[in-house]
Design a protein that fits this description.
Helix content: 40-55%
CATH class: Alpha Beta
Shape: globular
Number of domains: 1
Largest sheet: 8 strands, parallel
Structural class: alpha/beta
Radius of gyration: 18 Å
Bound molecules: 1,3-dihydroxyacetonephosphate
Length: 277
């Protein structure tokens, strides 16, 4: 099976160090609100609820928290998160600074509105035709605007031969191929298998930890241990308050990119608790 080859070549001390390195990174939990909620008033209510409950759940523990809200809600949600340790993020950004790009918003514009991170390459964007080259350009734009790109990668479906590892590898390589080590450490990788998004289906924690290892192996080979150890790898796809702990403990990941469950502050808070347990 091809996927075994991906991890097989890895010397066991490296497997060990990559697993152990997990302990040193601060977990990151991001709520991706997608195109929700329907009104600004509802968004403000949700924003206040999320800020209160998420910060209470985190307490004094070390855990980064972010919410990726619809761009139009930025300013009002920004007032709620202002001065609080919750990062505001966007769900996409154009690669260029300005241009004839109807409907697009640039990374610079988002940074000016105090965005700290931007999700790029989400499968719901890729499904609308964004390819690896565009995702790479968008991620570069986000880095140039001094924000964190949260780069989504993930297969449409799984096959017994493990060919899906090569799809994920291509998506990863597109973004990192021309990126220096320092810039690479600022990228967050979100592994989101498309078949698990919004479906209630999930890979096993072992599947996730093997994919994480494949991602780390790629980064290790390209940049060496120091950079590979710094890049955070999140999991996304039907994350709930019920499965989060299992993914954290046995999936060896650094946190989550949460869709549906991030629209309910209580559920989002339980997921944060799982990250610091
Ligand atoms: P769900 O958590 O609703 O499956 O969505 C995952 C996702 O797409 C987050 O970006």
């Amino acid at each position: 099976m091809k996927y075994i080859l991906i991890t097989q070549n890895m010397p066991s001390p490296m497997v060990y160090s990559l697993h152990m390195a997990k302990v040193k990174r601060t977990p990151l939990v991001i709520g991706n609100w997608k195109m929700h909620p329907a009104t600004l008033e509802a968004a403000k209510r949700l924003g206040k609820d999320v800020v209160t409950k998420a910060l209470k759940a985190r307490g004094t523990a070390s855990c980064d928290i972010g919410i990726a809200v619809p761009t139009l809600y930025f300013d009002e949600i920004g007032k709620i998160t202002k001065g609080k340790p919750i990062m505001l993020g966007a769900q996409n950004a154009a690669a260029g600074a300005v241009g004839a790009e109807t409907g697009e918003v640039s990374a610079g514009m988002l940074a000016e509105r105090r965005a700290a991170f931007v999700i790029v390459g989400h499968s719901e964007r890729r499904a609308r035709g964004e390819d690896n080259a565009q995702v790479t350009a968008r991620a570069a734009g986000v880095l140039a605007a001094k924000m964190i790109p949260v780069v989504c990668i993930g297969e449409q479906s799984r096959d017994a031969e493990g060919d899906f590892y090569h799809i994920v590898h291509e998506q990863l390589d597109a973004v990192f191929a021309n990126l220096g080590g320092t810039a690479a450490t600022r990228v967050v990788v979100a592994y989101e298998p498309v078949w698990a998004i919004g479906t209630g289906l999930t890979p096993t924690a072992e599947d996730v930890s093997t994919m994480r290892l494949a991602i780390k192996k790629y980064l290790h080979e390209k940049y060496g241990d120091a950079v590979a150890n710094k890049v955070r790898v999140l999991y996304g796809g039907s994350v709930t308050e019920e499965n989060a702990l299992e993914f954290m403990q046995n999936g060896m990941i650094d946190g989550f990119l949460v869709g549906g469950a991030s629209l309910e502050a209580v559920r989002f808070a339980v997921i944060i608790k799982a990250c610091i347990a």
